[in-house]
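Long-time lurker. I teach an intro course on protein structure, and each term I like to show students one example going from raw sequence to a predicted 3D structure in token notation. This year I'd like something fresh instead of my usual example. Would anyone be willing to generate the tokens for the chain below so I can use it in lecture? Attribution to the forum is fine with me.
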Amino acid sequence: MEKRLKECDSLSAKLSECRSSAEKSKANSSSSRGWFVNFSTSKKAPVSPPPSTCNKEAHALWSCRALALGCYGEVKLLQACRRETKGECKEEQVGMGRCIMEKREGMREYVKGKKRT
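-- Reply from a regular --
Happy to contribute to a lecture. Here you go:
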């Protein structure tokens, strides 16, 4: 599991890069102000993000982690839904997220070990 999770690190770096770029873009553009909100602490109403969000990078990272943690069935269900419906597949996304959270202890151990090195 650790080896597979380590393979996800490059995707995590790409997502961080994308978010950093999005933040810089937001700072340079007043029209996109307010879209990148921490919803857990903000009382602002959510605003739709601009078209250039980091969804692709975030989905790749979640899929990598799901596979590394053994959530193969959930990933296959999500892929099948996307192929068939070309929609959001919210239930399948939630199922994959639930599987990852159930197996998060393995992820925590990996992260702890990484911080030590």
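Some talking points for your students: Residues 2-116 form one domain. The chain has one domain: 2-116.
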